[in-house]
Amino acid sequence: MQENAIAGDEAVIAPPVTPPSLRQRLAPVSAGVRELLLITALYIAYTSSRLLASNDEQAAVHRAKVLLRIQKAARLNWEHVVNGFFVRHDAIGIFASFWYASAHYIVTLSVLVWLYFKGRDAYLPARRALMVATVLALSLYLMLPTAPPRFLEGYTDVLSLHSDVGWWGADASAPKGLGHLTNELAAFPSLHAGWSLWCALVLQRHARWRIVKIFGWLGAFVTAAAVVGTANHWVLDVLVGWMVTIAGVVAVWELAPKLPE
Fold first, then answer.
1. Is residue 59 part of a domain?
2. In whole angstroms, what is the distance from residue 7 CA to residue 11 CA?
3. Residue 140 belongs to what domain range?
4. Any domain includes 73
5. Could you identify which of 154, 187, 193, 223 might form a hypothetical disulfide with 238, taking C-beta atoms 3.0 to 4.6 angstroms apart as the criterion?
6. Is residue 149 situated within a structural domain?
7. What is the b/e burial string over 93-109, where b = at least 16 CB atoms within 10 angstroms of the residue's CB?
8. What's the pLDDT tens digit per position in 170-213?
9. Environment class of residue 40 by beta-carbon count within 10 Å: exposed (0-12), middle (13-18) or buried (19+)?
Protein backbone atom coordinates (compact mmCIF):
# COMPACT_ATOMS: atom_id res chain seq x y z
CA MET A 1 0.00 0.00 0.00
CA GLN A 2 1.42 3.34 -1.08
CA GLU A 3 1.24 6.44 1.07
CA ASN A 4 1.27 10.01 -0.18
CA ALA A 5 3.45 12.53 1.58
CA ILE A 6 2.55 16.16 0.89
CA ALA A 7 5.58 18.44 0.40
CA GLY A 8 4.37 21.95 -0.41
CA ASP A 9 2.01 21.73 -3.36
CA GLU A 10 3.52 18.50 -4.70
CA ALA A 11 2.67 14.96 -3.75
CA VAL A 12 5.65 12.70 -3.21
CA ILE A 13 4.86 9.07 -3.68
CA ALA A 14 6.90 6.76 -1.48
CA PRO A 15 8.37 3.86 -3.46
CA PRO A 16 6.82 0.49 -2.77
CA VAL A 17 8.68 -1.66 -0.26
CA THR A 18 10.04 -4.76 -1.93
CA PRO A 19 10.03 -7.76 0.37
CA PRO A 20 13.39 -9.53 0.62
CA SER A 21 13.84 -12.47 -1.67
CA LEU A 22 14.26 -16.00 -0.34
CA ARG A 23 17.97 -15.81 -1.15
CA GLN A 24 18.34 -12.62 0.89
CA ARG A 25 16.45 -14.12 3.83
CA LEU A 26 18.63 -17.22 3.78
CA ALA A 27 21.92 -15.31 3.35
CA PRO A 28 22.75 -15.19 7.11
CA VAL A 29 22.05 -18.93 7.43
CA SER A 30 24.16 -19.67 4.37
CA ALA A 31 27.05 -17.60 5.73
CA GLY A 32 26.82 -19.39 9.07
CA VAL A 33 26.88 -22.80 7.38
CA ARG A 34 29.94 -21.78 5.33
CA GLU A 35 31.76 -20.69 8.47
CA LEU A 36 30.85 -23.93 10.23
CA LEU A 37 32.15 -25.95 7.27
CA LEU A 38 35.34 -23.86 7.21
CA ILE A 39 35.99 -24.36 10.93
CA THR A 40 35.30 -28.11 10.54
CA ALA A 41 37.71 -28.32 7.61
CA LEU A 42 40.36 -26.44 9.57
CA TYR A 43 39.98 -28.80 12.52
CA ILE A 44 40.27 -31.85 10.25
CA ALA A 45 43.37 -30.34 8.64
CA TYR A 46 44.78 -29.58 12.10
CA THR A 47 44.24 -33.13 13.31
CA SER A 48 45.52 -34.71 10.08
CA SER A 49 48.62 -32.52 9.99
CA ARG A 50 49.54 -33.56 13.53
CA LEU A 51 49.52 -37.17 12.34
CA LEU A 52 52.11 -36.29 9.69
CA ALA A 53 54.67 -35.46 12.37
CA SER A 54 57.38 -38.03 12.94
CA ASN A 55 56.57 -40.79 15.42
CA ASP A 56 60.23 -41.44 16.21
CA GLU A 57 59.91 -41.66 19.98
CA GLN A 58 63.66 -41.82 20.61
CA ALA A 59 64.29 -38.55 18.76
CA ALA A 60 61.26 -36.93 20.42
CA VAL A 61 62.46 -37.92 23.89
CA HIS A 62 65.92 -36.54 23.08
CA ARG A 63 64.36 -33.19 22.15
CA ALA A 64 62.34 -33.25 25.37
CA LYS A 65 65.54 -33.70 27.38
CA VAL A 66 67.15 -30.81 25.54
CA LEU A 67 64.07 -28.72 26.29
CA LEU A 68 64.32 -29.67 29.96
CA ARG A 69 67.98 -28.66 30.08
CA ILE A 70 67.07 -25.26 28.64
CA GLN A 71 64.35 -24.88 31.25
CA LYS A 72 66.71 -25.80 34.06
CA ALA A 73 69.18 -23.19 32.86
CA ALA A 74 66.35 -20.63 32.87
CA ARG A 75 64.93 -21.99 36.15
CA LEU A 76 61.63 -22.87 34.48
CA ASN A 77 61.68 -26.58 35.29
CA TRP A 78 58.46 -26.54 37.33
CA GLU A 79 56.86 -29.64 35.82
CA HIS A 80 57.93 -32.14 38.47
CA VAL A 81 56.60 -30.05 41.37
CA VAL A 82 53.31 -29.16 39.64
CA ASN A 83 52.74 -32.71 38.40
CA GLY A 84 53.40 -34.13 41.87
CA PHE A 85 50.84 -31.72 43.36
CA PHE A 86 48.20 -32.83 40.83
CA VAL A 87 48.94 -36.48 41.56
CA ARG A 88 48.64 -36.06 45.34
CA HIS A 89 45.30 -34.20 45.13
CA ASP A 90 42.77 -36.33 43.28
CA ALA A 91 40.11 -33.61 43.04
CA ILE A 92 42.52 -31.25 41.30
CA GLY A 93 43.82 -34.03 39.08
CA ILE A 94 40.32 -35.05 37.98
CA PHE A 95 39.28 -31.43 37.35
CA ALA A 96 42.44 -30.81 35.32
CA SER A 97 41.86 -33.98 33.31
CA PHE A 98 38.32 -32.95 32.36
CA TRP A 99 39.52 -29.42 31.61
CA TYR A 100 42.37 -30.67 29.42
CA ALA A 101 40.15 -33.09 27.53
CA SER A 102 37.26 -30.71 26.84
CA ALA A 103 37.84 -26.97 27.41
CA HIS A 104 40.32 -26.79 24.52
CA TYR A 105 37.45 -27.39 22.09
CA ILE A 106 34.32 -26.20 23.87
CA VAL A 107 35.60 -22.80 25.02
CA THR A 108 37.34 -21.97 21.74
CA LEU A 109 34.30 -22.90 19.66
CA SER A 110 31.97 -20.98 22.00
CA VAL A 111 34.10 -17.84 21.67
CA LEU A 112 34.13 -18.22 17.88
CA VAL A 113 30.33 -18.48 17.76
CA TRP A 114 29.97 -15.47 20.08
CA LEU A 115 32.30 -13.44 17.85
CA TYR A 116 30.37 -14.48 14.75
CA PHE A 117 27.18 -13.00 16.14
CA LYS A 118 29.00 -9.82 17.12
CA GLY A 119 29.66 -9.16 13.44
CA ARG A 120 32.33 -9.34 10.76
CA ASP A 121 34.52 -6.60 12.24
CA ALA A 122 35.03 -8.68 15.37
CA TYR A 123 34.85 -12.17 13.89
CA LEU A 124 37.02 -12.08 10.77
CA PRO A 125 40.25 -10.71 12.31
CA ALA A 126 39.91 -13.04 15.30
CA ARG A 127 39.30 -16.09 13.13
CA ARG A 128 42.25 -15.19 10.91
CA ALA A 129 44.49 -14.74 13.96
CA LEU A 130 43.48 -18.18 15.22
CA MET A 131 44.27 -19.69 11.82
CA VAL A 132 47.71 -18.05 11.66
CA ALA A 133 48.59 -19.21 15.18
CA THR A 134 47.44 -22.75 14.42
CA VAL A 135 49.48 -22.94 11.20
CA LEU A 136 52.57 -21.70 13.05
CA ALA A 137 52.09 -24.35 15.72
CA LEU A 138 51.55 -27.11 13.15
CA SER A 139 54.81 -26.10 11.45
CA LEU A 140 56.64 -26.62 14.73
CA TYR A 141 54.90 -29.98 15.27
CA LEU A 142 56.21 -31.14 11.90
CA MET A 143 59.74 -29.79 12.35
CA LEU A 144 60.27 -30.58 16.04
CA PRO A 145 58.23 -33.56 17.29
CA THR A 146 58.81 -33.49 21.05
CA ALA A 147 57.80 -35.94 23.77
CA PRO A 148 55.66 -34.62 26.65
CA PRO A 149 56.84 -35.03 30.26
CA ARG A 150 54.75 -38.19 30.79
CA PHE A 151 57.09 -40.01 28.40
CA LEU A 152 60.00 -39.46 30.76
CA GLU A 153 60.73 -41.18 34.04
CA GLY A 154 59.61 -39.29 37.13
CA TYR A 155 56.38 -37.85 35.71
CA THR A 156 52.86 -39.27 36.10
CA ASP A 157 50.26 -39.20 33.33
CA VAL A 158 47.36 -37.69 35.28
CA LEU A 159 44.78 -38.32 32.53
CA SER A 160 45.71 -41.98 32.45
CA LEU A 161 45.60 -42.05 36.26
CA HIS A 162 41.96 -40.88 36.21
CA SER A 163 40.83 -42.46 32.95
CA ASP A 164 38.29 -44.56 34.84
CA VAL A 165 36.17 -41.45 35.52
CA GLY A 166 36.45 -39.88 32.05
CA TRP A 167 36.03 -40.68 28.37
CA TRP A 168 39.73 -40.48 27.54
CA GLY A 169 42.16 -43.35 27.38
CA ALA A 170 45.88 -43.63 27.98
CA ASP A 171 46.69 -41.77 24.73
CA ALA A 172 46.68 -38.08 25.72
CA SER A 173 43.11 -36.76 25.68
CA ALA A 174 41.88 -38.98 22.85
CA PRO A 175 38.62 -40.84 23.55
CA LYS A 176 39.06 -44.45 24.57
CA GLY A 177 39.79 -46.60 21.55
CA LEU A 178 40.81 -43.65 19.34
CA GLY A 179 44.36 -43.20 20.53
CA HIS A 180 45.68 -44.19 17.10
CA LEU A 181 44.14 -40.99 15.70
CA THR A 182 46.44 -38.71 17.68
CA ASN A 183 50.16 -38.09 17.59
CA GLU A 184 51.37 -37.98 21.17
CA LEU A 185 54.68 -36.48 20.09
CA ALA A 186 53.04 -33.32 18.69
CA ALA A 187 53.43 -31.50 21.99
CA PHE A 188 55.63 -28.52 21.14
CA PRO A 189 54.10 -25.97 21.36
CA SER A 190 50.88 -26.33 23.38
CA LEU A 191 47.86 -25.23 21.37
CA HIS A 192 45.75 -25.89 24.46
CA ALA A 193 47.63 -22.96 25.98
CA GLY A 194 47.71 -21.01 22.73
CA TRP A 195 44.00 -21.25 21.97
CA SER A 196 43.07 -20.39 25.55
CA LEU A 197 45.22 -17.26 25.33
CA TRP A 198 43.49 -16.39 22.03
CA CYS A 199 40.14 -16.62 23.87
CA ALA A 200 41.43 -14.31 26.61
CA LEU A 201 42.76 -11.77 24.11
CA VAL A 202 39.60 -11.56 22.01
CA LEU A 203 37.40 -11.36 25.12
CA GLN A 204 39.61 -8.57 26.41
CA ARG A 205 39.16 -6.76 23.10
CA HIS A 206 35.45 -7.32 22.47
CA ALA A 207 33.63 -8.26 25.69
CA ARG A 208 31.66 -5.50 27.40
CA TRP A 209 31.53 -6.96 30.89
CA ARG A 210 34.65 -6.94 33.01
CA ILE A 211 33.76 -10.29 34.59
CA VAL A 212 33.83 -11.93 31.15
CA LYS A 213 37.33 -10.57 30.53
CA ILE A 214 38.46 -11.84 33.94
CA PHE A 215 37.09 -15.32 33.19
CA GLY A 216 38.94 -15.26 29.87
CA TRP A 217 42.29 -14.64 31.55
CA LEU A 218 41.47 -17.10 34.33
CA GLY A 219 40.76 -19.76 31.70
CA ALA A 220 44.11 -19.13 30.03
CA PHE A 221 46.06 -19.57 33.28
CA VAL A 222 44.00 -22.59 34.39
CA THR A 223 44.77 -24.20 31.03
CA ALA A 224 48.48 -23.47 31.42
CA ALA A 225 48.48 -25.09 34.86
CA ALA A 226 46.43 -28.07 33.62
CA VAL A 227 48.64 -28.94 30.65
CA VAL A 228 51.77 -28.84 32.82
CA GLY A 229 50.23 -30.49 35.88
CA THR A 230 48.84 -33.42 33.90
CA ALA A 231 52.34 -34.00 32.41
CA ASN A 232 51.13 -33.37 28.86
CA HIS A 233 53.31 -30.32 28.21
CA TRP A 234 56.50 -28.64 29.31
CA VAL A 235 56.55 -25.05 30.55
CA LEU A 236 58.27 -24.04 27.30
CA ASP A 237 55.44 -25.69 25.36
CA VAL A 238 53.09 -23.25 27.09
CA LEU A 239 55.30 -20.21 26.54
CA VAL A 240 55.83 -20.98 22.85
CA GLY A 241 52.12 -21.71 22.46
CA TRP A 242 51.44 -18.24 23.83
CA MET A 243 54.08 -16.77 21.53
CA VAL A 244 52.60 -18.18 18.31
CA THR A 245 49.17 -16.95 19.39
CA ILE A 246 50.46 -13.46 20.11
CA ALA A 247 52.26 -13.50 16.75
CA GLY A 248 49.02 -14.44 14.98
CA VAL A 249 46.92 -11.88 16.82
CA VAL A 250 49.37 -9.00 16.37
CA ALA A 251 49.98 -9.77 12.69
CA VAL A 252 46.30 -10.06 11.78
CA TRP A 253 45.03 -7.16 13.89
CA GLU A 254 47.68 -4.98 12.27
CA LEU A 255 47.07 -6.28 8.74
CA ALA A 256 43.32 -6.96 8.88
CA PRO A 257 42.23 -3.59 7.38
CA LYS A 258 44.43 -4.29 4.35
CA LEU A 259 43.21 -7.85 3.76
CA PRO A 260 40.34 -8.64 1.34
CA GLU A 261 37.05 -9.58 2.94
1. no
2. 6
3. 78-258
4. no
5. 193
6. yes
7. bbebbbbbbebbeebbe
8. 655 555 545 455 677 778 999 999 999 999 999 999 999 999 99
9. exposed
- φ, ψ of residue 209 to 5 degrees: the values are -90, 135
**Distance between first and last Cα of the chain:** 38
11 pairs with which residues across the strands?
Answer: 6
Q: For Cα atoms 137, 62, 51, give the angle at the middle one, nearest 5 degrees.
A: 40
The answer to whether the CB of 163 falls within 8 A of the CB of 169 is yes
pTM, to two decimals: 0.80
Q: What are the angstrom distances between the C-alpha of 240 and each of 66, 157, 209, 244?
A: 15, 22, 29, 6
Q: What percent of the chain has pLDDT over 90?
A: 50
C-alpha distances (whole Å) from 123 to each of 98, 116, 213, 238 are 28, 5, 17, 25
Q: Is 200 within a domain?
A: yes
Which residues, in sequence order, are CB contacts of 141 under 8 Å at separation 6+? 49, 50, 53, 183, 186, 188
Using alpha carbons, list the distances in angstroms from residue 175 to 42, 134, 143, 163, 257.
20, 22, 26, 10, 41
- State which H helix or E strand residue 7 sits in: strand 4-7
> What type of residue is 150?
R
Distances (CA, A) of 21 to 25, 33, 235: 6, 19, 55
Phi, psi for residue 214 in degrees, rounded to 5 = -65, -45
Best CA proximity match to 163, nearest among 103, 231, 93:
93
**Contact of 99 with 168, CB cutoff 8 Å:** no
